[in-house]
Design brief:
- The chain is of the alpha+beta class.
- The protein starts with a strand and ends with a strand.
- It is built from 2 helices and 7 strands, in the order ββααβββββ.
- The protein is globular and about 30 Å long.
- 22% of the residues lie in helices and 36% in strands.
- The chain has a single domain, classed as Structural Genomics Hypothetical 15.5 Kd Protein In mrcA-pckA Intergenic Region, Chain A (Roll).
Length: 76
Amino acid sequence: MVRSMRDIAIRGDMIRLGQLLKLVGLAGGGGDVKALLADGVKVNGEAEDRRGRQLRQGDVVVAAGEQIRVRTGSGA
């Protein structure tokens, strides 16, 4: 079951998927990120297995039952 969406503000206009998963507390390090990716992560509804995937304003990530939307700048 996926929980309600939460917005995560980032500095700049881009964050990598692995960094986002660590930022929101779903992963403590690179090994945790790899395990999450192996279990299944979706970006904008499509399966993703690259921890270096670039995420931008409005991208939605679903991982470990969490739904996270990327927000940038002062509008975050």
